Amino acid sequence: MYKPLFFLTLLSFCVEALTARQASDNKLFISTIKGEKSIVISENGASAPLLISSHDWPGVIRAFRDLQSDIGKITSVTPELLTDKKIRAGDMIIAGTIGKSPIIDRLIKKRKIDVTGVAGQWETFVIQVVKRPLPGVKRGLVIAGSDKRGTIYGIY
After folding, report:
1. Helix, strand, coil shares of the chain as percentages rounded to 5?
2. What does each of the 156 residues of the chain score in pLDDT, given as a tens digit?
């Protein structure tokens, strides 16, 4: 009989392998150096707000709240979590599921994000930095999942 720790370790390994595969297209994923193709998550006592649609899956919204909490724990500044609101922000983190999030679907329709390799797939996601993803937002780190699990994997 397998112990719960074995399953937890196996699950952790699978998620890490999937995340590594999804992120392999990016040479540098996290950096302390500012750049034009990056966003600032937290700096000088302020964190980039998080935006998600209230129409997304409850599990996706929960994962995004976990990200909010993690950023707060690491930086001592918990970002504001917004649902369905228009906002003005320098940088912002936006997450959602293709076909379930009107925010993500709008970004696809306006060709702000490319989901060609993700749409219609199982448990996949894309993470892209987008200039002016929404009115009043300078740059956004967009996490778009092909389905509920894909979005959750992308957020974690």
Report:
1. 35, 20, 45
2. 444 433 333 333 333 444 444 444 545 556 677 777 788 898 889 999 999 999 999 999 999 999 999 999 999 999 999 998 777 778 999 999 999 999 999 999 999 999 999 999 999 999 999 999 999 999 999 999 999 999 999 999
Residue closest to 153 by CA, chosen among 123, 128, 117 = 123
One-letter amino acid at 93 equals I
Q: Please answer whether residues 102 and 131 qualify as being in contact, where contact means their C-beta atoms are separated by less than 8 angstroms.
A: no
DSSP string, 87-142: --EEEEEEEEETTT-HHHHHHHHTTSS--TTTTT-SS-EEEEEEES-STTEEEEEE
Domains and CATH numbers, the chain: 30-155 (3.30.379.10)
Q: How many CB atoms lie within 10 A of CB 30?
A: 8
Asked whether the CA dihedral 148, 150, 154, 156 is positive or negative, the reply is positive
Distances (CA, A) of 29 to 33, 45, 61, 141: 11, 22, 23, 11
